Amino acid sequence: MDIFSNLALGFSTAMSAQNLLYALIGCTLGTLIGVLPGLGPLATISMLLPFTFALDPTGALIMLAAIYYGAQYGGSTTAILVNLPGETSSVITVIDGYQMARQGRAGVAIATAAIGSFAAGCVGTIVLAAFAAPLATVAFRFGGPEYFSLMVVGLVGAISLSSGSVPKAVGMIFIGILLGMVGTDITSGAQRFNFNYPELQEGIEFIVIAVGVFAFGEVIASLGDNTVRETSVKKIGQLMPNREDFRRMVPPIIRGTAIGSLLGILPGAGPVLGSFFAYGLEKKVSKYRHMLGKGAIEGVAGPESANNAAAQTAFIPTLALGIPGSPTMALMLAAMIMYNIQPGPQVMTKNPEIFWGMVVSMWIGNLMLLVLNLPLVGLWVKLLSIPYRALFPAILLFCCIGAYSARFTSFDVFLAAGFGFVGYMFRKLECEPAPLILGFVLGPLLEENFRRALIFSQGDYSVFLTQPISAGFLTLAAILLIAASLPKIRKSRDEVFAEAG
Amino acid sequence: MKIVDQKNFFTGLFYLLFGIGVAYVASTYRLGTSTRMGPGFFPLVVAIGLAITGLVLLVASVRGHAESTKFEGFSFRTVFAVLAAVVLFGLLIEPTGLVVTVPVLLVGAALAHPPISWRNVAISIAVLLPMTWVIFVALLGLQLRLLPAFFYQ
Q1: Domain assignments of chain B as residue spans, ordered by start
Q2: How distant is the Cα of A434 from the closest Cα of chain B, in angstroms?
Q3: What is the spatial distance between Cα A182 and Cα A201, in angstroms, rounded to a whole number?
Q4: Which of A127, A171, A196, A231 has the fewest CB atoms within 10 Å, counting from its CB?
Q5: Whole domain around residue A377: which residue ranges?
Q6: What sign does the dihedral B44-B47-B53-B55 (CA atoms) show?
Q7: What Å distances lie between residue B8 and A40, A141, A166, A285, CA to CA?
Q8: Per-residue DSSP letter, B32
Q9: Which element (helix H / strand E) includes A185?
């Protein structure tokens, strides 16, 4: 099947009235929750998961993807209006976006973000459609060493791009991997770390960790430390960019999309790296580089297109190899597994309608954001003025229902409460918990491929370096790690964070 | 020895103790050989890695030139109220249904964040209880009970 017949299959799945409705609901809900300050995309997705429980797998995944896009869009709206980045990938948008908002051009900034994201999303979808199938063919030839080393690249990428200290992030990943070991060992069938609780025999339900560490942890931290201050929301002003704005946003959108699409394929925080690089490139080549940081439209268009293109192409390793590149992708992957869809090279041949339906629905989701949510931006902004104390009881309630109804057992609710405590402690200790979920999802895969590699090499550990593809991945991981610890790069990275903060 | 960087110190301590604990449990499982690994092998390796990471953080945090941070502002009231409300939700959902658990959770949430306005609590119950039932039970068909279990016998 070529790319066009694949996309046609996708369209026929995604365009059914039912699935369009799911995409619409998902976009709306995602934006609705994503716009709230203090709730990042991880917390948003975990909290909204129960809404998809009752749907068929295709519908559920389409809605989930829509929630993901809605949450991202809502996050950049909040970032621009209240100078509060909800996640690392919108850190860059805040710099010029908030300056634009201060000049009364918040509407134009939000519209630029949406237009840039849509353009990038279109290209990202095509890249995804074009590369996923060939990549899956290559992946069929991957053995244990290759898979293991590729996952190491993803984990190292997540470490080197998290905003905190490197050893803390390494620890988070280790803890995540260990939590993933709970339950039945796939290879030997032995029970591990279940402490005689029958509920743990099949492992910890991922939504329990997600709801606990991200949603409960964030709620407690926001309430306890009063970090959610009454923010002054900037006026939106005019929404439609003028002719001059359009003319100026085109080149950065093209550059941002190219960078983002490329980096998204690389496992390990593609969107973050994409928006950083896009901003850096604008600073070097843009005609208006002297205005960057002072509310230049290029500073919104470039990074926003880059992170959206990367967010789209990040689905390539997630869907085609079954290896998520970022914590958010890990969450999406875990959700797919919950619906009995094992992402990986087989998903394209076994469930083509799900795979291509999801790809196309992502594009439709982007379109919906542009044509439906943009006019509604005034409504979303009103949400920002609802005090947090009126909202968090509802957040708490939805999270409890989510934790309970994944398996209908109270045990999961208790476990989520425990993870809530842990999540709050992590925040107090300035440990960024996002890498934990990546470790949790990758843990069992890492172990399986580690074992497979050593069976293949008859116990010889050098196999990871003597197999050329695996050696290539490990070199890449080493470069990433060294780059992250180089004082110069660390410094410039911290400067960008500081500039944004 | 002075703990200069308290946040890294406690993180390191947690990583170290958690790592040692898991490593101990893992070592009670069959380890096997590198060709035929048992269920204990991989967790043991990762747990040791975690413990070493913790040790690195610990050592760095007591050195004089470490950045000084303080672990403070632990809000017992919020933590306790929120988590107690969640645990109560878990305990009560099967025997009593949403009609009891939703108000209990919302009261618990209110206690987490003083000053408490009972009027607002009443409003949130009046809004969220019907909304929960409509969305999750009527529309999504989740197996959640509205009323206490004895109503269904």
Answers
A1: 6-61, 76-152
A2: 16
A3: 8
A4: A196
A5: 3-500
A6: negative
A7: 24, 43, 12, 40
A8: B
A9: none
- Pairwise CA distance, residues A95 & A108, whole Å: 15
User: Both tokens of residue B7?
Assistant: 């946040």
Which of B38, B77, B94 lies at the smallest CB-CB distance from A410? B94
Those residues whose C-beta lies under 8 Å from the C-beta of residue A194, and which sit 6 or more positions away, are A182, A183, A200, A201
Test B82 with A219 for CB contact under 8 angstroms: yes
Give A385-397 as a DSSP string. TS-HHHHHHHHHH
Question: Which range, A15-24, A240-249, B53-62, is most confident?
Answer: B53-62
Decide if B11 and A393 are in contact by the 8 Å CB cutoff: no
Task: Yes or no: say if B109 and B81 are a contact pair by the CB < 8 Å rule.
Answer: yes
Reported confidence tier of residue A413, pLDDT bands at 50, 70, 90: very high
Which positions in chain B touch A389 (Cβ < 8 Å)? Answer: 113
Listed in sequence order, the DSSP H helices in A163-266 are 166-180, 206-209, 217-225, 243-265
Count of domains observed in chain A = 1
In this predicted complex, what is the ipTM?
A: 0.94
At residue A340 the predicted structure's pLDDT band, cuts being 50, 70 and 90, is confident
How far does A417 lie from chain B, in Å, by closest CA? 6
What is the number of CB-based contacts under 8 A between chain A and chain B?
180
Name the strand (E) or helix (H) holding A192. strand A191-192
Contact A171 B54 (CB under 8 A): yes
Residue whose C-alpha is closest to residue A116's, from A248, A212, A233: A248
pTM attached to this predicted model: 0.85
Classified as helix, coil or strand, B91 is helix
Q: Are B39 and A185 inside 8 Å of each other by CB?
A: yes
Per CB-CB distance under 8 Å, the chain B contacts of A411 are 90
- Residue A35 is classified by DSSP as T
* Each residue's pLDDT tens digit, A355-389: 888 788 888 888 888 877 677 877 777 777 777 77
- Give contacts of B122 with chain A, Cβ < 8 Å: none
Q: Which residue in chain B is spatially nearest to A423 when comparing CA positions?
A: B79
Structure letter (DSSP) for residue A232: P
Q: Please tell me the predicted confidence (pLDDT) of residue B22.
A: 95
Q: Which residue of A has its CA nearest to B80?
A: A421
Select the more confidently predicted residue: A285 or B104.
Answer: B104
Q: What is the pLDDT of residue B101?
A: 94
